[in-house]
Structures are given as structure tokens and as C-alpha cells.
Amino acid sequence: MSLSSAFTSARRTRSTDRGAVLVEAALAIPLLIVLIIGAIEAGMAWEARSSSTSGVRTGLLRAASLGDKPETDLRILQSVVGEIGADRVNDIEWVVIFDGTNPDHDTTVANCAAAAAGGGLSTTCNTYTSAQLADVVSATITIDDFDNGANGGSGTYTCDTTKLDSNWCSGSRLASAGSVNVGVAVRLKHDWFTGILPGDGVEFTEFAVSSTLVGEQAAPIATAPSTTSTTSTTSTTAPPTSSTTSSTSTTSTTSTTSTTAAPTTSTTPAPSSYTPDSISHSGSVGTGNVLGEDYIMMDSPTNYSSPGTARIDLTFTVLEDGTFHLTGDVWRWSSNAGSRDSFWVVVNGNTSGAQAWHVGGSVVSDWSAANNSPSFNLTAGTHTISLYTREQYTAIATGTIQLVKD
Questions:
Q1: End-to-end CA separation in angstroms for the chain
Q2: What pTM does this model have?
Q3: Residue ranges in the chain modelled with pLDDT below 50
Q4: Are residues 207 and 288 in the same domain?
Q5: Geometric angle at alpha carbon 389, from 386 and 393, rounded to 5°
Q6: In a domain, 116, yes or no
Q7: What is the 3-state secondary structure (H, E, C) of the chain?
Q8: 301 and 194 within one domain
Q9: What's the alpha-carbon Rg for the chain, to the nearest Å?
């Protein structure tokens, strides 16, 4: 073969190789793209299912904590939507709150979901639609739409058949036995993001049922056995040199060495939080109960310069020195920034050292947690922490107040 022929043959081989690579790439790249998109879609679908599972569990915890309070269903719905995300409320097809006493939970959930148009099944469940959940988010649906809600959850309870939870009334579901197994179910639809995969998306139905009874007859929470500190004593007695014995006692002349072991001391650490030993108030304050929480509200005029006369006194006994702050559920009556959302915090009557606690929060006309009080140093012992009026109408739920160590 001549030299020119050899070069020509080499060029043809390289051209053939390049063509084969292009063909292989044309076949492989679409498949690779589909795999990547599939992985992304699968991850997003898994996240949707995880959020629905978390929503069910959070709702069930709220159901167990509230029992038969009239606002129970509303708080469950708020918990479910809050966990899944208000931005995905339209993806929630329904939420079922049901009596889980019947062990065939799958059938119960299916029957209740099928009865969504009627709001559920009588004495068995309440079913809430996507549109109703959107109204919960926008606060179009409030406590007044649930059985005894017209009285704000107070007063004599009646199961009002015109309310949203009338099929299985929140406030009477423990009436017959004093306890019940509560179930929460959610169906969440996840639409495909890219539209490349077949179908419109996937649906997840998740439910959970309380494993213990909810109500006054619920099984008690198991607690660790208490530890008792004991003292061990060892005595060594020399042989007696003489003795006189009577019928009731023995007297010995002895050379005695008594050795006592050191007492066992408890190693239990001091708690990280404390509830008040006592709560009292004076001056112009308001008290009452709203949405199941007893509260004290500052009713004296706003005073940004210094603490006034109206106050709430909280007594705590702490077991060790440290830096602490207050937490509790607060109520904002106004959506205006910086309005009706602060107290003065005074430690042991030292009003000159008062610090402002801006409880804030995004929730208006409902309870929201506030854990951002200013910190202060305390020694082991009993102390009085006082909340004074800073902005009128700021309220705190007394049953939620805690002193927390930083």
C-alpha cells in the first residue's frame, strides 16, 4: 500500500469513529435526561409523602392533647396544614378525623372520604375538603364554625348540628365512655413538575390512629421509678472485757470503732425549665378563657417609658444559679407591627432594671408561642418575675408560662 493510500484509509477510520460516537450520544442523552428528571420527580414525590405523614402525626398529637374540647377539629386542621405547608393547601384533597375504635381503619377512612360531600359519617367521622382547608388558612373558617364555637368555646356545651364537625362533634366524642381512639387521615396529591412522566402525578393517603385512649380514662404516662438515697453503716466491735446481761438489754464494756460510709447523693441534674409556683396579678388587668386557654390581659394604658401599676407576678423556685428567660403563648389583638405585643419584665421588684419583651409573632387573634424574652441572671432559690403593662391588651396564657434556662 502506498503512503497516500494509508493516509486516506486512516482519515476514513476517524470519520467512521466520529459518526459512531454521535449516534451513541444521540441515543444515550435522552435516556440520561429521563433518568435525571425521574430522580428529581421521585425526590419531590418523596418529600410530598413525608410532609403528609408529618401532617397526620402532628394533627394526631393535637387531637390527643385537646381531647373533647370544642375547638379540637379546627386545631387539628391548622396543625395538618401548617406541617404540609399553606402553599400546598390546594394539593390536600381531604382530611378525615375519625373514631378509630373500629380496627378496620382502611374501610373507615375510605367510607368517610366517600362521604366528603356530606361532611363525613354520623357518629363516625368528619371530612374536610380542600376548599374548607383553604378557608381555614385564610381564616374565613374560624372557631365559630365548629359546634359550640359561637360562645368562643365557653359555656354549656351543645352539639350543634349546623356546624362543620356535626357528624362527630368535637365536644361530645368522649361522652359515652370517657375515652376514644382518634384517627387522622390525609390525602395529598402531588402533580408531576415536568409533565414528562406518565399521568398527572401521584396521590398519597396517610392516616394514623392514637395507640392509647384519649380522655380522662387514658392510660397514664409511664414514669421512671424514683431513686432513694441510702446510707450504709459498718460497725467493728472489739471483744468485751466484761459484761452484765439482763432480760431486756445487754451492756458491754467494749473497745469500738464505728465506720460509716459516705451517704449516696443524687446525681439528677437540675431541670432546664420551671413552671410557676404561683401566679397572681394586681392593677388593671383582664382575665378569662379563650380557645381553651386561661389568660391574663394587660388592660391599663400603654406605657413605653417605664412599668406602670398593673402587673402579673410569677413565682419560681430554681435549683441552681444560671441565666434564664420566659416563654409562653401570647395573643396579639392587632396586626399592626409593634402594636399590642410587649410587656415589661421585672426581676424581684427591681423596676429600674425593667426590660422590654416584644412577644411579636405573625398570628393575629389566636395564640402563638413567644420564647424570646430578655434574659436575666438568677441564683438558686425563690424569685418573683413580674410582667408589667408596656402595651395595652397584650395577653398571655397562664397555663403555658415557663422559666427556661439559657
A1: 89
A2: 0.49
A3: 7, 150-154, 216-267, 334-338, 363
A4: no
A5: 125
A6: yes
A7: CCHHHHHHHHHHHHHHHHHHHHHHHHHHHHHHHHHHHHHHHHHHHHHHHHHHHHHHHHHHHHHHHHCCCCCHHHHHHHHHHHHHCHHHHHHEEEEEEEECCCCCHHHHHHHHHHCHHHCEECCCEEEEEHHHHHHHHCCCCCHHHCHHHHHCCCCCCCCCCCCCCHHHCHHHCCCCCCEECEEEEEEEEEECCCCCCCCCEEEEEEEEECCCCEECCCCCCCCCCCCCCCCCEEEEECCCCEEEECCCCEEEECCEEEEECCCCCCCCCCCCEECCCEEEEECCEEEEEECCEEEEEECCCCCCCCCCCCEEEEEEEECCCEEEEEEEEEECCCCCCCCCCEEEEEECCCHHHCEEEECCCCCCCCEEEECCCCCEEECCEEEEEEEEECCCCCEEEHHHCEEEEC
A8: no
A9: 34
Same domain, 71 and 152: yes
Q: Are 80 and 130 in contact (CB under 8 A)?
A: no
* Ranges assigned E (strand) in 135-181: 179-180
As beta bridge partners, residue 251 has 244
Using one digit for the tens of pLDDT, what is the confidence trace for 324-346? 989 888 875 544 444 567 889 99
Residues 126 and 202 in one domain: yes
Judge whether 100 lies within some domain. yes
Split into its structural domains, the chain has a count of: 2
Residue 309 burial (CB < 10 Å; 0-12/13-18/19+)? exposed
Q: Domain for residue 97, yes or no?
A: yes
Is the same domain home to 278 and 211?
A: no
Instruction: Give the residue ranges of DSSP H helices in 67-104.
Output: 72-84
Residue 389: give the domain boundaries: 273-405
Confidence at residue 254, expressed as pLDDT on a 0 to 100 scale: 35
Q: What is the pLDDT of residues 248-276, one digit of tens each?
A: 333 333 333 333 444 444 445 778 888 89
pLDDT of residue 346: 94
